[in-house]
Here is the input.
Amino acid sequence: MSYERKEIAPEEIARQEEICRRIFDRITADGQRPLAMVDTYGCQQNEADSEKLRGYLREMGCGFTQDEFQADIIVINTCAVREHAEMRVFGNVGALNHSKKARPGQIIAVCGCMVQQPHIAEKIKKSYPIVDLVFGPHELWRFPELLEKAMTGKKRVFATEKSDGNLAEGIPQQRDGSVKAWLSIMYGCNNFCTYCIVPYVRGRERSRKPEDVVREARELIAAGYKDITLLGQNVNSYGKDLGLGVDFADLIRMVDAIDGDYVLRFMTSHPKDASEKLFQAMAESRHCAHQLHLPVQSGNDRVLKAMNRSYTRQKYLDQVALARQYMPDLVLTTDIIVGFPGETDAEFEDTLRLVETVGYDAMFTFIYSPRVGTRAAEMPDPMSREDKQRNFDRLLETANAISAEKHAAYVGTVQEVLVDGPSREPGMLSARTMNGRLVHLPGGGELIGQFVKVKITDYTTWSLFGEKV
Ligand code: 5AD
Ligand code: SF4
Here is the structure.
């Protein structure tokens, strides 16, 4: 198993694009435009990966559909962070039996973090014969080559050997939408939090070169994107592997120096590496949202240690205070795990108190899900599922009450928002305040991509409602 950073040569990507052209000739030979469906589970990194899969598929001549009965090629991009997502994938892949029967030439590929786990790849091999191609996150750059093999060969293709450390520039991207864009700045994670599967499936941290990140940001801004989110499992350790003396705070300043009307966001920050230098860069930048997703996971020191999080409750609270000192209008969000192995009710209470003390704008709460191969999965876990659920419900209630209270305080204020597309609320538009809160407002499509002033009129736990002023 190699942990070395391995840059994929540009000629290799050119070769993949050449294969796209070959596939194009093959699948469009009858004059029809084939359709592809890409289904994405999990985090924003996966969404960004799916945009690359779609980029390649577009070069193969595919149009896109969300209907599996219309699709000639189906790619399921999976998540391994919790069991629940894995069960959904198995259920949905199983259901593709019907579409494959209706369209016998249909190619089904399953990729992403879930299949990078040997026991999952094995299960697909044995129990899901309809799947033609399986490949892990490290192989995404050579999706065209793998797909061609699956289309032309007699055997199913499995490419999930560990080839840690790949870093590929220049993969074509088909972005979702025209206002918001994901920009991956690094891949992988070195932290090995004891509950987490990510370092095992996505490998060690590799940072893209600053000039590559800045070039992509410049291209996005020139193309009219207005809301750019820098992505990494732990953006605060950006650059450590490059040895160039450029850290994440420096990178923020480099991107921020690009002129234009846009908002810069980022996620995720690990509290052990978030620094005063970062808060200062955020506060002083012209484009960076005062918005921080700072997962705390637990408010109890023993549990934090067992999770291998490398900070204490107090250090976390000090960081929050410092960040707020630099940015009094900071919007702060977090992730919390309830029911980590051995967590007692008293330890859970510490988390609840911390949540009340910090007062998060929004929280993402999860019940611990054991992941094969992680250290926590071997720890004694005496608390019953019912008791964990009870604590989880209490946390959710507290979190929702705090979020609602924070949102209530917006009512009557005027906020600058960026309108990014149609809203899930029928007939409404969706927008974000500069610091990232979701706002629904009435209005026509001409507002999409515009910065507008909105008077906030109402709220729910998760979003605000407003009207253009
Ligand atoms: N069980 C439950 N939640 C988890 N997360 C990561 N691994 C697990 C797990 N095994 C949560 C963490 C992380 C978020 C993305 O998912 O809170 O921050
Ligand atoms: Fe997982 Fe921890 Fe890395 Fe986040 S920092 S991806 S929780 S190992």
Residues 189, 191-193, 196, 198-199, 233-234, 270 surround iron/sulfur cluster (ligand 2) (CB under 6 Å). The chain has a mean pLDDT of 95. The first helix runs from residue 10 to 27.
